[in-house]
User: Fold this.
Amino acid sequence: MCGNGPRREEAERMISEMGLSGDVDMIRNLSVGELRKLYGRSRFLLNTSGFEGLGITTLEAQMCGTPVLYFESAVMPSEVMVAAIPCRDEIDMVDKASELLADGERMAKVIEFGIEYSTRFGKDYSEKLKKIYLKNVGRAYKTP
Assistant:
């Protein structure tokens, strides 16, 4: 698990209570190089966030060839989520990830589309995302 979100301590407690501390790495404060390596060796980015103002993690993961699954109810820029896979809930997310793992051809297509789509944003993608966000503030991206 990666990040410093407001529910990090709760997640760490739950992991410990379930006896999974030795099986789950809690990662934070990675350098750009470390982050690229992490994306590169990950099978998926399972984005369970309810709100992503810019959606940078989605593009970063896809640029590294990592498919992204997210909750369709989450507030995220639709322009960024085009090549990501929407999921109804946790069970649907696991099912869709399992289906991709079982179908190498489909997985390859998802990866290829993610790379192709995410690289359209170019090297200045964070600036483009800020413009998308600012254009939509007050409309679709109200904080829950």
